[in-house]
Design goal:
87 residues; mainly alpha; 2 domains; 4 helices
């Protein structure tokens, strides 16, 4: 008997499940899968990331400025633009 390993990738309707059931039904949780097979399986069918993605990765690794700093800098830039506009 040959095992069909092609399984459709889709989200379940259920929002909770047991690990035991996921090991039975989840294509990415096969016990006999090597690390390379797992990576190949998960990446299969994925499109290239959008152009902004590397910037998001950088922000996630290095962190963001606080909202207070962002707003303060924006106010300073706006004041500077208004000042240049009238002078």
């Amino acid at each position: 008997m040959e095992l069909d390993l092609h399984v459709e990738k889709k989200m379940m309707k259920e929002t909770v499940d047991t690990l035991g059931n996921q090991k039975k039904i989840n294509y990415a949780l096969r016990e006999d899968m090597s690390k390379k097979e797992f990576i190949d399986e998960v990446l299969d069918g994925l499109e290239s990331p959008p152009e902004y993605f590397p910037n998001n990765v950088k922000l996630n690794k290095e962190g963001y400025e606080s909202i207070e700093t962002i707003l303060s800098n924006a106010k300073k830039r706006n004041k500077s633009k208004k000042h240049r506009k009238y002078h």
